[in-house]
């Protein structure tokens, strides 16, 4: 084949992109590095900072106690999701400590390799999602 197109299968293609890149597979379309930059919350956040784009307060967390502390400090509601997931898998808005615990359990089932990201949920904001093919 001429290469691999990572576009079908939900989250799976994004998860294997860097492994394929390290194996020197020829990936057609969006580069594995670009996929990783969008998936990895730290890399994505740094890019937004460099471009001067505001973002909600967020933190990567690994236990319930620190998650509750962050949410209480940032103020509910908070968005809870696995850190390496672009899709909406296990993404939920927590309005209380009880919601938070329920959603953290669901998020940890999606991605054991990556911590959970919790960010302040902005109720008066709009999210715009753009997909393009060129």
From TrEMBL:
It catalyses: hydrogencarbonate + NH4(+) + 2 ATP = carbamoyl phosphate + 2 ADP + phosphate + 2 H(+). InterPro entries: ATP-grasp, ATP_grasp_subdomain_1, CPAse_ATP-bd, CPSase_preATP-grasp, PreATP-grasp_dom_sf. One of its GO terms (cellular component) is cytosol. Gene3D superfamilies: ATP-grasp fold, A domain, ATP-grasp fold, B domain. Residues 45-133 form the ATP-grasp domain. Pfam families: CPSase_L_D1 (PF25596), CPSase_L_D2 (PF02786). One of its GO terms (molecular function) is carbamoyl-phosphate synthase (ammonia) activity. GO terms for biological process: 'de novo' pyrimidine nucleobase biosynthetic process; citrulline biosynthetic process; glutamine metabolic process; UTP biosynthetic process. Keywords: ATP-binding, Ligase, Nucleotide-binding, Repeat. Its EC number is 6.3.4.16. PANTHER family: CAD PROTEIN, CARBAMOYLTRANSFERASE FAMILY MEMBER. This is carbamoyl-phosphate synthase (ammonia). It comes from Ceratitis divaricata. The gene is CPS.
